[in-house]
Design brief:
Blueprint: H1 2-23, H2 26-33, H3 35-38, H4 61-70, H5 86-104, E1 117-118, E2 123-133, E3 136-141, E4 147-151, E5 155-159, E6 165-167, E7 182-187, H6 191-194, E8 197-203, E9 211-220, E10 223-231, E11 249-252, E12 255-260, E13 278-283, E14 302-305, E15 309-315, E16 322-327, E17 333-337, E18 374-376, E19 382-387, E20 400-404, E21 409-416, E22 419-428, E23 432-438, E24 444-450, E25 455-464
Antiparallel strand pairs: 1-2, 2-25, 3-4, 4-5, 5-6, 7-8, 8-9, 9-10, 11-12, 12-13, 13-14, 15-16, 16-17, 17-18, 19-20, 20-21, 21-22, 23-24, 24-25
Helix pairs in contact: 2-5, 4-5
This protein binds heme C.
Amino acid sequence: MNALFISTLLIVLSTLISTQANARTAAGVYRDYCADCHGRNLEGGLGPSLTDSVWLYDNTDQGIEKIIRDGSIENGMPPFAATLDDKAIRSLVIHIREKASQANNDESVGAVEQGLVQTKHHAFELVELAKFSGITWAMAQLPDGSFLVTIRDKQLWHLQPDGSATEIKGLPDIWQRGQGGLLDVALHPEFEKTGWVYLTYSESQDLFSGMTTLVRGKIEQGKWQQQQILFSGDSDDSSSAGVHFGSRIIFKDNHLYFTIGDRGRKEQAQSLDHPNGKVHRLTLDGATPADNPYPDAKYPSIWSYGHRNPQGITLNPATGDIWSVEHGPRGGDELNLIKKGLNYGWPEITHGMNYSGTPMTANTAKAGMEQPEVFWVPSLAVSAVHFYQGNQFPQWRGHLLVASLRAEQLVLLELKDSKVQSQEVLLRNQDRIRDVIEGRDGSIYLALEDRGTNSSRIVRLEPVETPAQ
Ligand code: HEC
């Protein structure tokens, strides 16, 4: 009786302790269960360093999960399967990856030194075109070389190459809240003939909630005119949350694709009854194409689903590949190859954890759900992606430029046969990068924003010939 009581008590206690451990942040769990042997900063001690590049065991995520679960008792690594559940072990792997990345982060790669950035293949300077007050979101270059620039707080500017700018009047009612506001701007593929300009922004039907909307219109005498609404959600789909609106627009074969984030309602990313957490496809005048994958869904514009907050999308015109970057949870930012009708898994599967550092799920893969081509641990906060085709930086041609907010990096992803071969940081620590575009002459332009001063800059990467080394 007594023995039974004590063993029951022990089971209850150990369940309590492990439940507690499993709801805690990965950093806290690491400190309590691992730091004594592996060092406070994972630098090693009784156990090996977890931040260097030397691994005794399989260093894939699955391999690291396995050694934490099973241990290596004879060599002094205790097994944690009884103490930590799969979710907690998954979050420890993310913690180890984050710390390793911090420890190995070479701040000199992509840094501006004496006005110059030297990358593997090209050197460049940053040339500032203009400054704006407010947070910039997107830009597009007009045929005459001038630009349209969006500021999230409801402003559209016409920027001349000499830096002078005029504001376009008469925009629709825009609901600016958190990550919402005026978002992307894009030109009709035959803009010179049609004059159509496309915008995405957050729209509110009742002041208290909003949803991503797609419109087109024309700019005449400095005014937004002839607006047509091409997509807007139901009032049911509006949310008061100021997060995850997407949104970017691209064109391919006389269709347009645009993205909407999950609006903070992550389960809905899996449902075809909701427009959020999706990539949508429409004709250029907003009709549903007959060959979309879900013609009977409430939103037949859905092209792919299971997305968290896709803010970047780009086309490789040679192959027709559509690439998208999306903000994941902490350690779960993704690059995806977007294909018709597929499910990209959010929130059922993710490589990330909650922002607080507590576990989210142990599931990184499931049947019927696509894997990202790349995921970033730690997250960069990927905001935009562009498939580069220009002549100004010939070695970057045919590859992807990825812009990021939190990490303040511009990253080159080298592609071969639609697979990412390697990554190189081209630029760092020059403010959060909202957009990266290619000018008509192959120039690369960045839209940068600084939350501290609530201001933005448009810069060009100016190639510089450096003497052969
Ligand atoms: C009592 C000391 C001790 C504790 C506590 C401990 N480890 Fe270890 N760990 C070791 C030793 C020793 C090894 C090397 C085992 C070997 O040589 O086979 C190791 C190996 C590892 C490895 C494999 C490293 C490689 O190079 O392949 C990982 C990953 C790891 N531990 C993670 C953890 C985590 C996460 C925790 C906490 C949940 C933890 N360890 C707690 C001692 C410890």
